[in-house]
Amino acid sequence: MATPAYRVGIVSLSNGFAAKTRWRGRVYYGRREGGGLTYRLSGGIAVRPAPRWSLSVDPNYLRHVDHQQYVTELAGGPVATYSRRYVFATVDQSTWLAQIRFNYTIKPDLTVDLYAEPFAASGRFYDHGELPAPRALGLRTYGTDGSTITRETDGSFTVTEGGDAFTLPALDFNVRSLRSNVVLRWEWRPGSMLYVVWQQDRSSFSPFGDLVKPLSLFDGVTASGNNFFAIKLSYWLPAS
Questions:
Q1: What whole-number distance in Å separates Cα of residue 30 and Cα of residue 68?
Q2: For residue 176, which of 216, 236, 213 has the smallest C-alpha distance?
Q3: What pLDDT is stored for residue 190 in this prediction?
Q4: Any idea where the domains of the chain sit in the sequence?
Q5: Does residue 215 sit in helix, strand or coil?
Q6: Nearest to 120 by CA among 146, 98, 141, 147
C-alpha cells in the first residue's frame, strides 16, 4: 500500500516555571491524505498550596481514525496481488488516560506518596476491503463490486465474492484499567527507613468499540485485578 501524505499542526501553551501553580496544554492535529486524522489534547496542572503537600494531574485524550489499518492476509486474491488478499479496514480509536500524583508530608520523617494511572480505550473496525494492486492508495471495499459483507453475532465478518466466502476476525475492543501505588515512608531513626507499599493493577476488556468518555476513566476502579502489599525495613548501623 502506498504511503499517503500527512499534515500536522501543534500548539503548546504553559505558564512560568517558577509559578506556584503550574499549568501546560498542548493540541496536536494531523490529517492524512484519504481522510484519516489524529488529534490529541494533553496538558497538566501542578499545585503546591502548602509546603506539606503537592498535587499534579496530567490528563490526555487521543482520537485516531486510520483508513489503512492492516487486518489480515488471506489466500484467493487476484493475480495483481499475487493471488493473496491483503485486507485492511478503517479503525476509529479513542483513548483517555491520566497520571495523578499526590505527596503529603505528615512529619519531616513521615511521608505518603500516591500515584494513579487510570486508562480507557476503544477501537471500532469497519469499511473492510482489500488492496486492489501493489502500492495502491485506496481499497476495494467489501460490499461493492458484487461482493457482500455481513457482521455475525460474535463480531466477526463474513465476506462473499463470486464463489468465495471467507471470515474476518472480530477486532473491536473496549479496555479499562487502573494502576496505582501508595507508599508510606517513615524514617524511624536517623538513616533507618520503613516502607509500606500498596500496589493495584486492575483491568477489564469487552469486545465493543464504543467511544470512551472522560467518566470512563473511573470504570477501572471496579474492574477485577491484583493487589500487592510489601514492607521494606532498613537499619543503619553506625560505623563506630
A1: 15
A2: 216
A3: 87
A4: 41-234
A5: helix
A6: 98
Burial letters 55-71, b for 16+ CB under 10 A, else e = eeebbbbbebbbbbbeb
Q: In sequence order, what E strands does 108-213 have?
A: 110-130, 140-141, 148-151, 157-161, 164-168, 173-189, 192-206
Q: What span, in angstroms and rounded, lies between the C-alpha atoms of 180 and 199? A: 6
Residue with cell 500496589: 199
Task: Tell me the residue type at 91.
Answer: V
Residues 11-25 pLDDT 10s: 999 998 778 899 999
Report the amino acid identity of residue 173.
F
Q: What is the largest CA-CA distance in the chain?
A: 90
Partner residues linked to 130 by β-bridges: 87, 140
Q: What is the mean pLDDT of residues 54-66?
A: 96
The per-residue DSSP string of 216-228 comes to: GGGGGGGS-EEEE
Contacts of 41 (CB under 8 A, 6+ apart): 25, 26, 27, 28, 60, 61
pLDDT digits (tens, 9 = 90+) for 191-218: 899 999 999 999 999 999 999 999 999 9
Residue type, 238: P
- CA–CA gap between residue 182 and residue 199 (Å, rounded): 7
